[in-house]
Amino acid sequence: MNLNSKKELEERISELEKEMWEKEKEVVGLKKTLSEKDVHDYKFDTLNGKVSLSELFGDNQDLIVIHNMGKKCPYCTMWADGFNGLLHHLTDRAAFIVVSPDDPAVQQEFAKRRNWKFTLVSAKSNSFTKDMGYEFENKKYMPGVSVFYKNDTGEIIRTGMDVFGPGDNYNSPWHLFQLLKDGVNEWSPKFEY
User: Fold this and answer.
1) How far is 114 from 189, CA to CA, in rounded Å?
2) Is the CB of residue 65 less than 8 Å from the CB of residue 148?
3) Domains of the chain (ranges plus CATH)?
4) DSSP track, 66-111
């Protein structure tokens, strides 16, 4: 296709963006269907003892759980930094927590250094991360998100999930970097700059 004029370029960009938006909605719908399952009331470790998945909903019927690989992962740290900045928006709609395999004391020390305000829980002593599809053999982890709904009878249902990776929709720096002359240009996050 030969696009000669600015108007033709703008029209083509608009057309492609609409197609992408429709495909994104379709993908999200398929992921919801694929990920929907009943979930039991897992118990997580915190500095204050055990807390159940159902308690993490607070007064909400929806819960967003970020599966974080722990303090050794600079990518997970960057996602968590971003969610921390959006926390007041997120918690206006749903409960929000971050789960990792780190011990609660390690989580809290790291969160304090990063000035994170969200709730952290440890899945080190349960099968939650594996059952949700984010832990593999030899304690290998993948970052991502699971979304849960608690109905009026207390039943917990996972209604959505997605994995995280460089350039995904859950971390805005990648999209801003793509606009730069040289794009992302092999950039990767660090703990300190």
Assistant:
1) 14
2) yes
3) 34-172 (3.40.30.10)
4) EE---TT-HHHHHHHHHHHHHHHHHHHHSEEEEEESS-HHHHHHHH
Among 17-31, 45-59, 71-85, the minimum mean pLDDT is found in 17-31
Residue 25, C-beta contacts closer than 8 angstroms, at least 6 positions apart: none
What is the model's pTM?
0.88
Take residue 2 and report the two structure tokens written for it: 């030969």
CA–CA distance, 100 with 76 (Å, rounded to integer): 10
Q: Rounded to the nearest 5°, which phi and psi values hold at 119?
A: -75, 135
> Positive or negative, the Cα torsion across 176, 178, 179, 185?
positive
Q: What are the pLDDT digits (tens) for 77-130?
A: 999 999 999 999 999 999 999 999 999 999 999 999 999 999 999 999 999 999
Helix axes 74-93, 104-114, angle to 10 degrees: 80
